[in-house]
Prior knowledge:
The complex is a heterodimer.
Chain A: H1 2-29, H2 45-67, H3 82-91, H4 96-103, H5 107-146, H6 165-169
Chain B: H1 2-29, H2 32-46, H3 54-71, H4 78-87
Helix pairs in contact in B: 1-2, 1-3, 1-4, 2-3, 3-4
Amino acid sequence: MIFGAVLVLIAVLILALGLAHHAIILLSLGKIRRAYVRMPQAGSGYLEAFAIYMALFLALAWVLHKYTSGALIWELLLLLLIPPAMIWILLRGSSFGEMRRGLGCTEVAARSLKFAGIAVTWPECRSLPQCCSASRFHWSIHWKNAFQPIPPDQLVGGPGTSSCSTHWHA
Amino acid sequence: MLYALACVIAPVLEETMFRGALFHHLRRRWGWLISAGVVAIIFASIHVQGWTVAPTLATIALVLAAIRDGAARSSPRSLPTRATISSC
Lengths: 170, 88
């Protein structure tokens, strides 16, 4: 298992080095180029949006720390921090398309994210039907036996079944 | 749940705001190295895993900024890369 993981890591490392080498060659040949163009006069809407995000992030983190039990489910609320930042960028004069390009919210990203989400949650999704069928089995046994008389030797806490037997005899 | 947070929610948030808003703003004004360096320092500072992992986080942020810088016109490939790094 560990040997296999090490082999996979080495393969990924070799692949990454190969792709980096390929990218350097393409860059030197002029086949690919830097995407950003200097725009010193551009507005500061994105920086302000980031400041809003950071302020809301710290405030939400404090509220969650103070008023919740620390369950991970609450951290889903962090996703609500993105819309205010987007709205601020729009209010500062950027078009919707420019904002999407600036933040990297493209269709390709959404599709990649969907597949990444399926990939990382696949083990849990795969075990979900088993959990459901197991709980269904449990409940069917429970309901089947609910109206049946239970023999005294199968009672929980009955003679010789647990530490409660002491109290039972007493 | 932890997987979903680390591999989906955190990449969406951080790629949108760090490599999206902040890097996009800085990159239009400064060169790649300064922009990526500033983003990497803030990215490493805001994580609560401790200062011992800060250099690793900063390195990851630099790589992601490089991917974003080279791919801004076509697609933000830094997002799936970040999700893959988180899943590892």
